[in-house]
Write a structure and sequence with these properties.
about 260 residues, alpha/beta, two-stranded antiparallel sheet
């Protein structure tokens, strides 16, 4: 098991599909359950033992900088982009701040509830440096809240990932959470480019792997999906609290009163 101390939070995008909410507010600062999407992600990273987080900025970046600059328990660095560099391009620009060890990359709108173990901890436990350049957190397409896409990947019994064939539905969707090694970016182009380019290259090398998320994942790409997630999150948190209470009562009946 490894213990990543650094992470990247992708927060530069315009959030076009979330308009008009993102006309005046960057998507990562939209609230869900009384807390912004970015703060939810940063809380998870801090809980996982991360100490330093790089946040890339472009659209309404000053709002993000002001909100996140003194985040409790984390040292926050900002990577400003004059032009949008897409997902992997933004990380490539920030590599000097991310060190030489594997680090987490989390989309600024990634929202999930953990299962039996924290998802970030499961990624760290599963990491194998000899076999992997990137390890993605995936969720079953049919069970994702607010997701209606065709999925992204197939997964072998060993966890190695393969692309979805054309005109077919893939069993797993990418959640916006991954653990990557800096070597994934070797030979990468300059400027803007997507992680899809690097993932396809890693697939060819048989070095792209995945972990199936055993909790809940909320896809919040549109205002309607955000509203659905708000309703589902309230329900899921209530169920989670009830489950935790029942477990405590089982081991200590005095707690059930």
């Amino acid at each position: 098991m490894i213990h990543p101390k650094r992470a990247m939070l992708l927060a530069a995008g315009r959030g076009e599909r979330m308009r008009p909410l993102t006309d005046k507010t960057p998507k990562p600062l939209l609230e869900l359950g009384g807390r912004s999407l970015a703060e939810r992600a940063l809380d998870r990273l801090a809980d996982a033992g991360v100490e330093e987080v790089v946040v890339n900025l472009h659209h309404l970046g000053e709002q993000l900088k002001e909100r996140l600059k003194d985040y409790p328990g984390l040292r926050i660095y900002f990577s400003e982009e004059e032009e949008l560099l897409d997902t992997a391009g933004g990380v490539a620009k920030a590599l000097p701040l991310l060190g030489e060890e594997p680090f987490y990359v989390v989309n600024g709108d990634a929202v999930w509830l953990d299962g039996m173990q924290p998802a970030l901890l499961r990624l760290a436990k599963r990491w194998c440096d000899d076999a992997m350049d990137a390890l993605l957190l995936l969720h079953p397409t049919v069970a994702a809240v607010g997701y209606d896409g065709p999925g992204d990947f197939r997964m072998t019994p060993s966890g190695r990932l393969l692309r979805r064939p054309e005109r077919e539905i893939a069993p797993f969707a990418y959640t916006g959470v991954q653990l990557v090694h800096p070597r994934l970016f070797e030979g990468a182009p300059e400027g803007a480019f997507s992680f899809n380019l690097l993932w396809d290259q890693a697939i060819e090398r048989e070095r792209l792997y995945g972990v199936r998320h055993d909790g809940t994942w909320y896809h919040v790409g549109t205002p309607e999906a955000l509203e659905m997630a708000q309703e589902e999150l309230a329900y899921d948190l209530g169920e989670s609290e009830a489950w935790a209470h029942n477990v405590k009562a089982y081991y200590d009946p005095a707690r059930s009163s």
